[in-house]
Amino acid sequence: MVEFTLNGEAQKLDVPPDTPLLWVLRDHLGMTGTRFGCGIGQCGACTVHFNGQPMRSCQLPAAALAGSQITTIEALSHVVQEAWLEHQVPQCGYCQSGQLMAAAALLDRNPRPSDDDIDAWMTNLCRCATYQRIRSAIHAAAATLPEPEPEVPEELDDAGETDGEGEE
Ligand code: FES
Ligand code: FES
Fold this sequence. Notes:
Elements: E1 2-6, E2 9-13, H1 21-28, E3 47-50, E4 53-56, E5 69-71, H2 79-86, H3 96-109, H4 115-121, H5 131-143
Parallel strand pairs: 1-5
Antiparallel strand pairs: 1-2, 3-4, 3-5
Helix pairs in contact: 2-3, 2-5
The chain binds FE2/S2 (inorganic) cluster (2 copies).
C-alpha cells in the first residue's frame, strides 16, 4: 500500500512497489495526460512534478511515492500554458504535457531564462521539433512574471556594507 498526494488529493493505492508512477497514473488512476514515450527516462514525455521537482514518472517506482506530493498536467495552472497557446507550440501534441511540466518548473526557478538556460533545462524530446516555439513561449511567459530580485553579492554583509577586507 502506498500513500501520497496527487494534485492535492490523498491517494492510497495497493500497487506492486516497482510499478512506475507513469503506469500508476495511466493504468490505475485513468489519468492519461502524462504520456508514455520511451519508458527509459530519455524523452521526458512522462514528466510530472515530484515534491516540486520535474521528474520522469517512468523512472519513479511506486515505493518512492510514500508521503510525496505529485502534480500532473491535469492540475498544472501556470502562465506558461497561456504562452503555449499564443505561440501555437503543440503540433501533434504527444510530448507537450511533459514539455509544459518541465517549462513551468524552469520558470518557477528562473523567471528570466536565457536561450542557453532553456536549452540546458528543456531536455524533453519533440518529434515535431517544436523547440523554437517552446523557447519563444517560455520567453513570452517569463515576460509576464515580475522582475527577479537583484542578487546581493556575498561579500556584502546584512547592513549592505563590505566586510572591510582591504579597507584601512
Ligand atoms: S517515457 Fe519517461 S522519459 Fe520517456
Ligand atoms: S508536438 Fe509532436 S512530438 Fe512534440
